[in-house]
Write a structure and sequence with these properties.
By secondary structure, the protein is an alpha/beta fold. The chain has nine helices and four strands; from the N terminus they run αααααααβαββαβ.
Length: about 280
């Protein structure tokens, strides 16, 4: 193939993907939210030995569309209420496609100036949208679990640093104990992060919640410089928000660290009528 035919072939494949995506979108309202048994059974056709040679690219896309589109959960048509899964805007999806074609490594500015600049702009916009202090820093990660992991890791390391323990150099062997304070309705992802960070389930102290899943202030234990407090903005079933401001005041007065799991409830700060619900998070 020449460079020209390579380019033409690439464009043809992208056009084919766009065609199949359009067909999927055009039939969203007709699809069941969860795939039918026939569609689920058809996935067995994908289970074949590793090919010895490459396959025809158009055939691969066609097979993915014919089998995969029918077996997809229809969560983009406004009828899906199974889990707290985000939707998409058409322009967001189109921009994602363009970004996929760019195929950038966004680790450093020198590796992708455009990605670095877009991150800076998005950080500024998010800070403005959520009415956070201008000096707020943002990090873009793959999802809420790694976001919680990163925030809790920062809290763990800082609490240990204050007590003279360099976790980067010494690890966690014989490290000072950290108490983890969580509400009774904390999300499962929080417990996953606690485990991954080596904090230990025996060090978790659960605080009773009200009937909406909010942490009860009157049930909070005595805190101190060993406590890592995990509050929640948006209980996964009710949407309830912990009394974050009061929790922060009590924790900061005693030298504790506060992490807020704001996976989706933090967006309440966008609405003037809901902004007070997250008061104190800044």
């Amino acid at each position: 193939m020449t460079e020209a035919t390579d380019s033409e072939h690439f464009s043809m494949l992208l056009d084919k993907a766009r065609q199949f995506a359009g067909e999927y979108i055009d039939h969203l309202e007709e699809r069941p939210v969860f795939p039918a048994e026939k569609s689920l059974g058809a996935m067995g056709r994908l289970d074949e030995p590793l090919p010895e040679t490459s396959s025809d690219p158009v055939s691969v896309l066609t097979q993915l569309h014919e089998i995969g589109s029918a077996a997809a959960v229809t969560q983009t048509a406004g009828r899906y209420f199974g889990f707290v899964n985000g939707g998409m805007l058409p322009v967001g999806l189109a921009a994602k496609w363009l970004g996929d074609v760019w195929d950038q490594n966004a680790a450093h500015w020198v590796m992708s100036p455009i990605n670095s600049r877009l991150e800076e702009i998005c950080e500024r916009w998010i800070v403005s949208l959520l009415h956070l202090p201008q000096e707020t820093a943002a990090g873009f990660v793959s999802g809420t679990t790694i976001a919680n992991f990163s925030g809790l890791c920062a809290g763990r390391n800082e609490l240990l640093r204050r007590r003279g323990w360099d976790v980067v150099a010494k690890g966690l062997y014989q490290a000072p104990q950290i108490r983890v304070i969580v509400g009774a309705h904390a999300h499962a992802a929080v417990y996953k992060c606690i485990s991954m960070l080596g904090l230990g389930s025996v060090n978790v102290e659960k605080v009773a919640s009200d009937d909406q899943g909010r942490m009860r202030l009157d049930q909070m234990p005595e805190l101190g410089e060993t406590a890592l407090v995990i509050a929640q903005a948006g209980e996964v079933n009710s949407g309830a928000i912990d009394p974050i401001g009061a929790i922060c005041e009590r924790a900061h007065a005693s030298g504790s660290w506060v992490h807020v799991d704001g996976a989706f409830g933090l967006w309440a700060r966008v609405l003037p009528s809901m902004r007070d619900a997250c008061a104190g998070i800044e």
